[in-house]
Design brief:
Blueprint: H1 7-14, H2 18-26, E1 34-35, E2 41-42, H3 45-59, H4 64-75, H5 81-114, H6 125-132, E3 138-140, E4 143-146, E5 149-150
Antiparallel strand pairs: 1-2, 3-4, 4-5
């Protein structure tokens, strides 16, 4: 096979670890690749191009399942770009929700850290809040918020 690469070379060329390349093959994202007589995988230009597509998709945060769908659309020359656009916009919405959740977590941890004296005393409002087990991601005006809704009878740790 001309321009063939072993798995180590393919990993280096694509920036994907050999372990992940094997996983992508096992999961069906890339088809079975050619093998040497000794059973070693060998990757041709088409395989490397597909791995690059997978890498770029992963870098954009697409799930393995979604990448499979994107690969099908990529290979289907009769596809409708509207299908790809819809998938991309759905992914944007998912990422925006994740960003909002992360921002809420940052606000919670920042608020807890601001309420901590950070001295030699053992009292720790951060640990006290974590110990309550409440799945809260945001506080506003002293009231805890869960998914944007005020929680009744919320207990806010006292400042140390």
């Amino acid at each position: 096979m001309e321009n063939a690469m072993n798995i180590g070379q393919a990993a280096k060329a694509t920036g994907i670890s050999a372990k992940m390349i094997r996983y992508y093959e096992d999961s069906g994202l890339i088809g079975p690749v050619a093998r040497t007589e000794a059973g070693y995988r060998i990757y041709g230009p088409r395989d490397i191009h597909t791995l690059g597509f997978i890498k770029r998709s992963r870098d954009m945060g697409f799930s393995v399942e979604r990448i499979g769908e994107l690969l099908q659309l990529w290979r289907d020359r009769s596809r409708h770009s509207a299908d790809v656009k819809c998938m991309a916009l759905e992914h944007v919405a998912v990422m925006q929700r994740r960003i909002a959740e992360l921002q809420d977590m940052v606000a919670t941890v920042r608020t807890l850290a601001d309420g901590c004296a950070g001295d030699e005393r053992p009292d720790c409002p951060i640990l006290n809040d974590i110990a309550t087990g409440a799945p809260l991601h945001h506080r506003a005006g002293g009231k805890r918020l869960a998914k944007g809704k005020p929680r009744q009878n919320a207990r806010v740790p006292e400042k140390a």
